[in-house]
Amino acid sequence: MKNRLALNSGIAIGMILFVIALLGVIAIAISASSGNFMGTTIVPDRVAHDMKSQANLIRNKILECYTYGYDRGELADKYPSSTGNGTAVDSLDCPAYTSGQQNLWTGQSPAAFPPPPAGFGPWYYVNAGANGGRCVRIQPNTPSDVGIKNGLAQVSVAFSANELVYDSSSSSQRFILWITRPNGSASADCGS
Question: Number of structural domains, the chain?
């Protein structure tokens, strides 16, 4: 003779499956709505990756320009010049490149210049000479964004204190990378 199971046997399995299904629906809803769990659409890992790769690309292109100028020998300042409080990096000209092909990105030695990371304004370059230093800088459009702050904190450890000017507690969250350190007082445009 067969033993019958009690009417409430198996109820625990049903509840467990229901909870798992409910958690799945919640996870899908959260991931679809914001992209991450910090209440921002800016992903810190993406900011860190983009900032590091773009800063190094810009620095290398400027140093390449210097190398061309050094090879030519006759130039007083072998680095690109800047105007006022800085020149947009995508508009930089290399004085050592052939006339008519001087743009740092589309001229004699072309390279693809990516758009700034999401949530940031354009990169700027400042040439304050040997005394004031040479730097590139970028600033977020919304400095209080948690994703931007966390991304900048991540990328800041990739550079030494001699390379980078970044204050995580500043209201501007300005990120400044030295091309050449100043011999005298640093340019105010290369400060946070």
Answer: 1
Q: pLDDT tens digit string along 121-180?
A: 999 999 999 999 999 999 999 999 999 999 999 999 999 999 999 999 999 999 999 999
1 domain residue, yes or no: no
Please, where are the H alpha helices in 35-183? 44-72, 129-132, 146-156
Cα separation values, 94 from 36, 50, 78, 190, Å: 41, 24, 8, 20
One DSSP character per residue, 22-42 reads HHHHHHHHHHHHHSSSSS-S-
Domain that holds residue 73: 44-190
CB atoms inside a 10 Å sphere around CB 28 = 10
Q: How many beta carbons lie within 10 A of that of residue 143, not counting itself?
A: 15
Residue found by looking up tokens 């030519």 in the block: 72
71 in any annotated domain: yes
Does 12 fall in a domain?
no
CA–CA distance, 82 with 100 (Å, rounded to integer): 18
CB 152 within 8 A of CB 98: no
- Name the strands in the sheet holding 124-127, side by side, starting at the edge strand that comes first in the sequence: 87-88, 124-127, 134-138, 175-180, 164-165
pTM value?
0.77
Residue 78 within any structural domain of the chain: yes
41 has a pLDDT exceeding 70:
yes
